[in-house]
Amino acid sequence: MEPSLYPAPLGLNAIDEPMELEIEIEDPESVSIATDGIEITLEPERAQPEDHDANLAEFVDDRELASIASDLIEDFETDQSSRKEWVDTYVDGLKLLGMKYEERTEPWPGACGVFYPLLSEAAVRFQAESIMETFPASGPVKTQIVGKLTKEKEEAAERVKEDMNWRLTEQMPEYRPEHEKMLWSLALAGSAFKKVYYDPSLGRQVSMFIPAEDIVVPYGASDLRSSPRITQIMRKTKNEVKKLQHAGLWRDIDLGEPAGYLDDIERRKAEEQGMSATMDDRYRILEMCVDLDLAGFEDSDKNGPTGIALPYIVTIDKGTNNVLAIRRNWYADDPLKLKRMHYTHYIYIPGFGFYGFGLIHLVGGFAKSGTSLIRQLVDAGTLSNLPGGLKSRGLRVKGDDTPIAPGEFRDVDVPSGSIRDNILPLPYKEPSQVLYMLLQTIVEEGRRFAATADMQISDLSANTPVGTTLAVLERTLKVMSAVQARLHYSMRQEFKLLASIIRD
User: Which distant-in-sequence residues (6+ apart) come within 8 Å of 309 by Cβ?
Assistant: First the structure.
């Protein structure tokens, strides 16, 4: 190389000696040039997936994926800690359902362990009334024509109605069972969710129930659409994970063995069903709807990158912190790149924050008081029928460790005096009428608050005006009608998501 033909850059001495230039090509897609201690590496541009719905985790560097997973899991744990009081209240309330008899050893072994079924009664009634209201035999979908009414619109609306009802009642056999489970959980927890998505293994749309404890949002979020982060906790078996990896939906990486994590709500639910759950042999997967400024896929305009975070769905294995998938969460033809919704939030009674109030929060105190009172009444009856007391040391009764059966006489050795002088029964009383009246009052108030009070229509006179009877009915059903209205609103949002998937 002739130095005079290549002048040195400004600030550097002229090249006096020829340079030896070494070019090494190890990878046809990457070129490295080294000379005199200077190394220049020419990296190819990052490959861009052609499919809008592709798994972007396959095109992102492993170090960047690890950083994304670490940040998102830290955010998730912060979100979980912010709702700890809600979880504690829910866990304590599940015990009051009374699905399992409690074996008590205090104040004595065999003491009454019954629960007053106020919560269960209210939840069963709500579920029974709501399923008939929201899912009639002909199907739950009704259509509404917007704009001028024409014959063509009426025929189109009828076709849409028949098609949607056929899908919900025939094509999607899981819809009604999932809907009933949602209603039961909604009444107790105050919030329940439906996830609407396309299932490639079934080749059709599905709408699955997601309990409130499996949807985690940041503190201060008011609804799903405006929440900056939505995390769904999923549990997958080894075989389910392998299927998703084989289908190309998740990265094919080794996740090791499941961590076996089991939270308090899962353990309490298992106990209420009569099962002993100590660990869960499934993978704990986090599916997070978040906004990210993903390197290599930045939002840009004519002036270059804007720095605006875009909506993505990031799937992470909680046990290993491995990112399994990153997918765009907006429509390909949407110029605004708005976040797509996949969840529907059902609310029993709106609360101060994101989660609603359920029967556990509203009448849990009544159920706890009723349980305490009924146990006192039963224990008082037990003590009055089988009383205990004191006897002198010298008194001997054959088989004195067991209660005396009806018609049974036992031999007694009396040291001196009469038997009455050697035995002192403790002054146990019969079950108190005051406690019984208090129990009735608490149960009545709890039922009224839960809107499950029986309508005493039979108490009305035959000469009662029709208007008075209708007013009593309307007032009794007013609270339940408001809850049903919220159900219908949420179902409308759910059906819109189903219709968009069917359309696509």
Answer: 291, 292, 293, 299
| C-alpha to C-alpha distance for 207 and 174, rounded to whole angstroms | 8
Terminal Cα-to-Cα distance of the chain (whole angstroms): 63
Whole-number Å distance between alpha carbons of 83 and 217: 9
Q: Is residue 240 pLDDT above 80, yes or no? A: yes
SS3 content of the chain, % helix, strand, coil (to 5): 40, 20, 40
Decide: 320 and 255 in contact? Cβ < 8 Å: yes
Question: Containing H/E element for 119?
Answer: helix 118-134
Q: What is the DSSP string of 201-216?
A: TTTEEEEEEEEGGGEE
Query: Where is pLDDT greater, at 202 or 421?
Result: 202
**Cβ–Cβ under 8 Å, residues 498 and 196:** yes
How far is it, in rounded angstroms, from Cα 98 to Cα 118?
9
Between 439 and 397, the more confident residue is 439
pLDDT over 90 at 73, yes or no:
yes
Rounded distance between C-alpha atoms, residue 237 and residue 2, angstroms: 68
Handedness of CA 271, 275, 276, 281 (dihedral sign): negative
Q: Which of 323, 264, 414 has its CA nearest to residue 71?
A: 323
Q: Where are the beta strands (DSSP E) in 36-97?
A: 38-42
User: CA 190, 360, 77: angle at the middle one, nearest 5?
Assistant: 65
Query: What pLDDT is attached to residue 431?
Result: 84
State the alpha helices, DSSP H only, in 455-465: none
The share of the chain scoring above pLDDT 90, in percent, equals 32
pLDDT in tens, 305-357: 888 999 999 999 998 999 999 999 999 888 899 999 999 999 998 888 889 98
